[in-house]
Amino acid sequence: MQNKFLVSINNLDDIEIYKKVGVTTFLFPLEGYAVGYPSIFSVFDINKIKEENKYVLINRILDCDDIDKLKELLLKLKVKGIVFEDIGVFNLVKKLKLDIDLIYFPNHFNTNYQSINAFLDKGLTSAVVSNEITKKEIEDITKNVIKPVVLQVFGYNMAMYSRRLLLDNYAKVYNLEKKNPLVITESVSKHEFLVFENNYGTVSYDNHIFNGESLLELDNVLYFMVNTSFIPIDTVIKFLTNSYQDEYSGFLDRETIFKLRDE
Amino acid sequence: MERVELLAPAGDLERLNVAFAYGADAVYFGGQDYSLRANAHNFNLEDIKNATILAHKLGKRVYVTVNIVFHNKDLKGLKEYLKYLDKIGIDAIICSDIVVIELANKLKVSFELHLSTQASTLNYEQALFYKNLGVTRIVLAREANRKDIKRIKEETGLELECFVHGAMCTSFSGKCVLSNYVTNRDSNRGGCAQVCRFIFDTDSKEFTMMSKDLNMIRHIKDMMDIGVNSFKVEGRMRSIYYIATVIHTYRKIIDKIGNNTLTQAYASYCLDILNRVANRESAPQFYESIPGVEGEYFLGRNEITNKDFLGVVLDYNSKTKIAKIEQRNYFKVGDKVEFFGPNTEEVEYTVKEIINENNEVIEVSRHPQEIVYLKVDSKLCKGDMMRLKVFDKNEYL
Question: What is the mean pLDDT of residues A223-231?
Answer without folding.
Answer: 98
